[in-house]
Structures are given as structure tokens and as C-alpha cells.
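Continuing the batch. This is chain 6 of the set; chains 1 through 5 are on the previous pages. Same settings as before, nothing changed between runs. Recording input and output for traceability.
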Amino acid sequence: MRYLQFILSNNIPGNKLRNILAITFTNNAAREMKQRILDYLKKAATGDPDTLRDLLAILDLSKDELRARARQKVDYLLENYSEFQVQTIDSFLSRVFRASALEFGFSPGVDILLNSQGILEQAFSTFTSELAADPTKRTILDQLVELLLENQQADARFLWDPFVKLSEEIRKLYNKLGSQKGEVLSAGNLIAEKKKLHANILSTFGELFNLIQQSTMEMTSNFKPVIEAARRRDVEDMIGRKSLYKPPVKKPSGKKAQEEYDHWCARFGPLQSTLAQMANEYSVAAARTYYHAYVEGHRYFRRIIRDLMKHEGQITIADVNKELAEYIDRELVPEIYFYLGERISHYLIDEFQDTSPLQWDVFRPLLEESLSKEGSLFVVGDTKQSIYTFRGADWRIMRRLMSGDESFPSAPVNNKTLETNFRSFESILEVTRKVFHEVVPSVVRSEASRLSGLSEFQQHVKPEFKGKGHVEIAFIEDDKEQEQRKQLLLAIVAECRQRGFSYGDITVLTPKNGDVVAVSSWLNEHGIRFISHSSLDIRGRKITGEILALMRFLDSPIDGLSLMTFVLGDLFTALLRRRSSGISPDQIRAFLFETNRTKGQRPSLYARFREQFPDLWNEYFEDLFNRVGYLPLYDLASEIYKSFDLIALANDEEGTLVKFLEVIKNFEEDGQNNLKDFLEFAEEESDDADWDIPVPQGEDAVQVMTIHKAKGLDNRVVIVLLVDSRARSDNLFIEESPDGLSLVRITKDISQTDPHLESLYEDRHVRQAVDDLNRLYVALTRAKEEMYVISVKSELASEPSAFLPSTGFDSTTKPAVTVLTPSLKKRATLAHPIERALLKPQSTEKLSLYERKRGDVVHAILSRIEFVDADVSDQISRTSLEIQRETGEPFDSSSIEQQLVSFMAKAGVQSIFTRKEKRTVLNEQEFVNHDGRLFRMDRVIVDEDAVAVIDYKTGDENEKYAEQVQEYMNILSGIYAGRSIRGMLAYVDRGFVREVT
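Output for chain 6:
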């Protein structure tokens, strides 16, 4: 609503589309936000009463004015979609970095990787090879492996090949440090101090041991292990034993013996006090040097990564944030910031609690610039729903902004709390209130519930939701076989279904992906339709594996295994059965087995396949075999679909097939178009939704997902499956300081030796507790009408069951269910033509690099000019400056600008840039001809009764140019039927326009 208020208002300065930036944290959220904005505008334009009522409440417009402005904005938005800046924070920062890439030592065409897996693996391979080959650095590798083995859990499998685990740990550390600002500091000085303390402790203990022997008193049995540790020079063992600091001799009976005991204890005391002090110092030094090998390894690994990224022209998104933040931290501001500060006036940030400190450091200078003028910042967030701290998110940023601890001098903070819950019935809110206001404060000793606002939130329901809703909490014990939870969950689903809820009204939330798999299997056993959000990755589908196998074969024809995988798969088998050629799948299988048995006689499987089944090869493989390497990746995939008619062959997998093409499109948009790279990308593990099929809306199926994926979603009935578990211990702490970052190992015992380490330790555990409570809050607030909590208790842990009320939410009579009539949605008939476009050779010109770049700049400037202003020279100069700032590409702007001003002054040229009533100009617009080929036209002028297409040229005349414009005219005649079509060639350098007939 805020975005709509901005773009529709007459009273807000700087409210054009290009002046507003809306930031979200996921691609799905960005897509949804764009869709909702468009839907609101369309409904307002068509006079929807509810939409008009909502918008008129926040706008100073009449109903007719609002409808007219909404129509105007819809048209403008669709024609200028690139100005519709609703995007993820990663996308925006990537844009900023690309525009400033030269300042960071990268080319403007740098490829920004959202998934760093591939480049990190490549770097680790180089890292281990160089360490192993260099004797001076081999010590680091030995220490890393030793440290890895030392930190293996007792019940873990033996690491026969530690390099796999080491690779994982190094990459995990790199990603973790990538979300922190500053370089990792070496602990070299502390190592020398630790060695000195080591020697001093043994020396002081030697003095103590001599005194004990002089006393001739009997030593305690508990002190003997300390002596053994000292003989082994194992200081860690020594100082970790409490007996080192207690009287080392037995207390005798009798007054005289007691006096002697007191005498010697008094002599032992100072040495033991010295040992206790040195033990604390040693523990702190050991904590700060424990990960020294990791620090040195990371520093070396990071250098390799940076060299590799610059060589490959790639950078990970984490490094983008880090580079920008550290640049700004040095009080340097990338040039693009000045441009953005002038252009973007209003910032809207959703899910602000998920902002990381690094992202906030990068954003803050831009916000300060806008707020110092007539700009604004509008953030929406809920610290109670911050559950992504493992990705670097820090809810404390929002907390500081709300409290005024962090502010902008030029703009006062205006906090608004939404206290009305528009989602849930009253009983749902009642259980969350009881959990977080009564139970949690009595169980959790720390300030965790207060810090994120859980212990003090106030929420009210809509009047029509009062007294409604239903909640049940069931506790299960001794359920190692998972049978009890399974039966209870299935019974709840069956009962809800029987009472009138549809399967689509029910969502099951679980803590981990493993639980999602288990619940999905239970539902599947009983024939209940379900959608598992953890199994939407199309790479798990058999059809995807078969298509990838075919692509692997086309990329490397000697890969006989990939060819066998495809021709023995379901797709090719279905194809054979559909054909009437008489070749059966059994014949193919027999041929392959026979060929494999005698494979020594022929080198290539595909050659023998081609000989044995020439018709099959010519019909399905020959064309693909000849085109691979020439066709762009997306075109190659399209040809595969058409060759085998995949949509018709596997119409039940249409969603998978469409998503596969979408992945390829996104892959190409990232600047990659290589089949081999795509095949490697397909094999990489990925936590994001690159390969996930979007969940269809309105599907009558139970949805099963983790609590993390449920954030922002809701449903009529939610079943929450909670399982008590211990938090995974991690002793590696990252300490931030003005000088940089330090890696510290802190256990509970070590934390008690130093106040600062204790503070780090307590802060980590409080934040973990906040995360756990926030995750529980998210789980308990997804239901609209009914919620069922199944809490499985454990002997090893007590949370989260300890946070749930033990009484008051037992199974009782269920309320009546309002049965909703499923909305009938119109389904578009999908067409998948299999006609294949002819590949026509295109004529090419030999141009120098300078000429090509100059032509690109001329086209870029002209593409941004719809109509000429009174001062053409200033208009062209401003446009030229914009392009330089955005691209970072240097060019001779002065000569180009003079040429364009001269060109536009020509009599025959002025008419194509003249403003005219009801005239629409389409710059750089893409059109498709009848056989599916894509054409981008430089300038199309659409008038009421005529259409003109203009193609800009910067060189001499060429007869081929006229053929190209005639092709454009043919396309436009089919789109703008009934209007006269004109075609023109505009020669910029020669200063005239030639009509094409």
C-alpha cells in the first residue's frame, strides 16, 4: 500500500517509478510484491469498490482521478518495466557492484555468483595442491587435518579421507566470515605468549613439586594425575584439573601434624595462586590461538579465491557485500552512490529484521543521502520473526533503529506498531500469548524473550474473529519408532477432512527437512494428496535426469553411459512405443548389452547405435548432434523438447519441463551460455530455490514444509510437529574489533576464565535462545482457524516442549467448519508447438573494437530518448552521463554527444523525435516473427493510423540494412493490422534518414 500511495499521489516529490526502490529478501517475495502492486492498480483502474476504498483512504484524490491515474500507471509500468524496482537486496547490491566494478579491480561484465559452491571447490583444490607441494606451508595443512580430527565427535565415523570434510569446513568458514566486515587477524603474537606461559607454568609447577617433596607429607591421590600430566608437558591437562589448586597433601590428624599441614599449605598457596593466574592467562591465549591453522588457511584460501575470481571474471554475492562494506568503511564511496543518491528518493524495505550488518553498512550511505533531501525510508519488520541469523541476519539492527540508539540526523524516527492481527482467530493468539508471556519467562532465565519483543508484544484480533478458533496440544513420550506421532498426525488430517476442511486447507510444519520427508511418506502411504516443499527440486525427478544425460552425451559423444541412460529411460521408451517403426525397447536394451559385452571391438557406442538404428538416429539425434556447440543453450534445450516432443510425451511432468527451461533462461541471464558449465551447475548442491517448482495455488493437497519455509505463509489448519532436541554446540566464535576479526574457541569452562570471553559466550547463547523462540513463534502463528501441536519429548533434551503449556489445550469438541466453495480458476490452454525454426546464416560486418563500442554507446543514448526537449544538447549530455555511471565503461562522450546533437538538428530527423498527441514510442522493443525468432527494434513509433520503425546505423550504407528493416515491417504489419507501416534507416554519422520501401 505504501508503494501504491507513493506512485499514485500528487503530493509526494520524487515519486516516479525510477525514484522508488522496494527491497525484499527472496525472489518469491519480490515476484509476489510486483504481482500485488499490478493487481491493485488494475482493480483500481477497473473500479473495484474494495480496492478504491482502501486507496482513497491514503490518497488525496477523487474516485475518478484515482481510476484515471491507476490506468495511466498500469500502461506506464508495462511499457517501462525496467523502472519497476522491486527486487531482492542481493540483486540491488549486485547492480551497484557491477556499476562500480572497475573501482574494485573487476571488469564491468563481472559475473556475480549467488551459489559459491563451484568456485569455492575450485579454489580449495588449488589451495590443497599448493600447500601439499610447498614444504614451508605444508605445516598449515597438517595442522588443519589435526584440528579437524580433534574436533570429530566421539561417535562420528573415522575420516578415511579428511580432505572432503576439510573442504566442507574451510568453505563453511569462508562463507561465515564472508558475512562479517574486516579481515581475519593473525594470532602469531599470542602463540609466542602461549609458549612462554607454557614454560612458566611447568617451571612454577616444578617449584611446587619440590616443596611437596620437601614437606615429606603424603600426597593426595587426586594430585598424582597432575604430576603425570606435567611429566608429559601436557599443560592443558594440568590446568584443567581442580586438584592443582587444592592442597596437594593429605590432611593429618593430631594438633602438631595439623600445624605442620597448615605451615606447608601456606607455602604451597602463593605458588598455586600464581599457577591459577597463569592458567587463566594460558586458557585465554589457548582460546585465541586454537584456530590459528584455520586463520592462516583462510587467509591463504581467500587470496586464492580473489585471484581466481578476477581471473574468471566472477565474484560471489557474499564478496560483493564485503567489498562494498569495506570500501565504505575506509571512507571511500563508489561513484555510483552519487548517481543513485540523486536518482532514488524513497526506499521501502520489507522483512527488515533479516538485514545483515554488512548489508546495512552498504545501504546506510545511500539512505543518508536520500533522507538529507526530500527522500524517505519505510521499513517493515518483526523482530519476533527473525529466524535467519545463521545466514548473517541481525534483528538487533531493527531494534536499535526502533529504540533510537541508531538514527539518521536529518530524519526523525517514527515508530508504528501494528497491534491488530488480521490472520488468526482469537484462540490461536491466546496460545501464543500464554506461551511467550507466561510459560517462557518462567523457563528461560536469560533475556531472550524480552530482547526480540516476545515477552511484551500486544496483539488484538479483528472483531469478527473474537471467540473463534481451536487449539490442541498433545505431548508424546517414548516414540523412537515415530509410530505415535504418525498415527496422531494422520488422525488429525482425517478428522479435519471429515469435518469439511479440504486437503488444501491443511499445512504441516516440521523443524527439519528429515521430518518433512517422514511426514510426506506417511501421507503417501495412506493415499493423501500432499505437496512437499522440501522435494520441489526438479533435479530429483527422473525425467530431469534423463534430459541431463542426453545433454551430457551431446556435450561429450564418447560418454556412452549417458547415451545408455537416456535411451533406456522412460522418455525414449515411451517414444519407441508411440512410434510405429517396429523397434521395441527390448531390441534397444539387447543391442546395448551386446555392445557393452564386446565394447573392445568398437570405440564409440553412439557410432554403433547410429549404424544399427539409422532411422532413429536421423530422426531424433542427427540434427542435435550437428547443432550442439553452435546453438545457444536455451535454443539447444528447445530443440531437444521439439525433437522428442517432450511435452506430449510426458504431459504429467509439464511443470518439471517448464521449470527446466526457466532454469536455463536464468542461467543465461547470469552471463553464462556454456553447456559444460550448465551441466556442472546442475550437479552443484544448492540451498536456494533455483531448481524448485513453485507451489501451485489452490491445489487440493496437504502442504508439508519446514518452519523456515513457512515464514510469511498461512493456512486455515496448521499441524505443528515439534521434536525436543539439543542445540548443536559450536565452540568457534568470531570476535569483531576495530582492527578486524578473530577466531576464538570458547567452551563454558573457558568462558569463566575471562570476562570478555564470558561476554562473547553469553551473547552467543542468548542469540541462539532468541532464534529458537522466534522459530517457535513463527510456527505457532501460521494458523488462521485451527492449530494442532504435536510435541515429541526426549530424554536428551527438554526444548521446545518445556515452552508449551501442559494444560488448557486438550482435545475437546471441535467447532463447526465453514465449508468454502472452491474458486473456479480459469485455466489457460497451453500450446507447445514443435515446429522448428530454420537457422538462417546472418551476414556479418568486420568492425573494429572501437567502432563497435562507439555504436553501442550511440544506440544506448538514443534508446533513452522518447522525444527531444527544448535543449537537445543538455538532454543528450545528461543521458550520456547516466550511461557512463551505470556501466562504468569509459568512452569519448564529447565527440559522440556533438555528433548526436548535429544528427537531431537535421530536418528529416527531427520528425521522428517530435512529440505528438496519442503517439507512443517503443525503444529497444522485442518482437517475435511467425517462426519464433526474436527481433529487437531500435525505435518503433505508434500513431493512431500509422506505425514507423527506425533502425539506427553508425557506419556507411549497406543494401543488407534495407532487408532487415523490411523484415521488421512485415512483423509490425501482423501486429498493427489496418495501419500503414513505414520503415526508415537513420544514418547517425552521415546525418540523414532514408525511407525503406
